[in-house]
Write a structure and sequence with these properties.
The chain has about 250 residues and is of the alpha/beta class. About 45% of the residues lie in helices and about 15% in strands. Among the domains are: about 20-60 and about 75-150 and about 195-200, Undecaprenyl pyrophosphate synthetase (3-Layer(aba) Sandwich); about 150-185, no CATH class. The chain is built from eight helices and six strands, in the order H-E-H-H-E-H-E-H-E-H-H-E-E-H. Strands 3-4-2-1-5-6 form a six-stranded parallel beta sheet, sandwiched between helices. Helix 5 (about 120-135) links the parallel strand 3 and strand 4. Helix 4 (about 85-105) packs parallel to helix 5. The longest helix is centred in the middle third of the chain and has 24 residues, at about 85-105. It is globular, with a radius of gyration of 19 Å. Bound molecules: farnesyl diphosphate (FPP).
Length: about 250
């Protein structure tokens, strides 16, 4: 067994032995461009290499017993990247669906996608719908892919829906509270993330789940996304164990 392998096994054992595994981990997968640049490769090669890290992270989440994993795959702002890169990302998405569907079903993973899917090309939309349908029976891990997603747009959408309900007389403005608001979010069916992992060293939220991350623990690693392995994922879970979550309350 290699040193790396035994380190990974030890990290997983620590995660499993010590109990509390976060129910929901969200990940900002960053650093694909830098990974490619350092190798003199085009940016899309970084995104392609990032697919291996997606697989590693999903398998790691299954092994550790995480129930929900949310991955920020394509943001609202990513539409403004050069068209060649956007096209490459859309193609990769379809490639990912084709190549991973069987493995995801085999692991008992259910995939759901959230974001403005109407902006996606027809083939990408179709690939996503097929993936959601074929993994519908998965009960081991729910993977939520944020695609064409921006948190401010999501929050504005909630405000619009609630305003409309008020206009229609179904709701009074004073009835609107945090619970009612959260019930209109795209993520309303899942618990809020307990842990946010961001790769490549940037310490930003980047318009990702602004409401839902209110009490999440943050874990930033310098590792670039394509180099991220399940060992790194277990490391984040071990680190999470050491956090004392207070939810704004006083320590007793
Ligand atoms: C950020 O790196 C990453 C993205 C914009 C896309 C993430 C996509 C993948 C990992 C591949 C496909 C994923 C799925 C789920 C099919 P960046 O380009 O901003 O990197 P940089 O900050 O180094 O430039």
């Amino acid at each position: 067994m290699s040193g790396e392998k035994s380190g990974v096994t030890a990290a997983l054992e620590t995660v499993l032995q010590e109990g509390e595994v976060p129910a929901h981990v969200a990940v900002i997968m960053d650093g694909n461009g830098r990974w490619a640049r350092r190798r003199g490769l085009p940016r899309w090669e970084g995104h392609r290499a990032g697919m291996t890290a997606v697989r590693e992270t999903i398998e790691g989440a299954v092994e550790a017993g995480v129930a929900h994993l949310t991955l920020y795959a394509f943001s609202d702002e990513n539409w403004f990247r050069p068209s060649m890169e956007v096209e490459a990302l859309m193609t990769l998405l379809q490639e990912y669906v084709r190549s991973q569907r069987e493995a995801l079903v085999g692991h008992g993973v259910r995939v759901t996608v959230f974001g403005d899917r109407l902006r996606l090309p027809e083939e990408a939309r179709q690939a996503i719908s097929e993936l959601e349908a074929s993994t519908e029976g998965g009960t081991v891990l729910e993977v939520h892919l944020a695609i064409s997603y921006g948190s401010r747009a999501e929050l504005a959408g909630v405000a619009r829906t609630l305003a409309q309900r008020c206009l229609e007389g179904e709701l009074a403005p004073e009835e609107i509270d945090a619970e009612l608001f959260a019930a209109e979010l795209l993520t309303r069916d899942w618990p809020d993330p307990d842990l946010l992992v961001r790769t490549s060293g940037e310490q930003r939220i980047s318009n990702f789940l602004l409401w839902q991350l209110a009490y999440a623990e943050l874990f930033v690693t310098d590792v670039l996304w394509p180099d991220f392995t399940r060992g790194h994922f277990f490391g984040a879970l071990v680190d999470y164990r050491r956090r004392e979550r207070r939810f704004g309350l006083v320590k007793t």
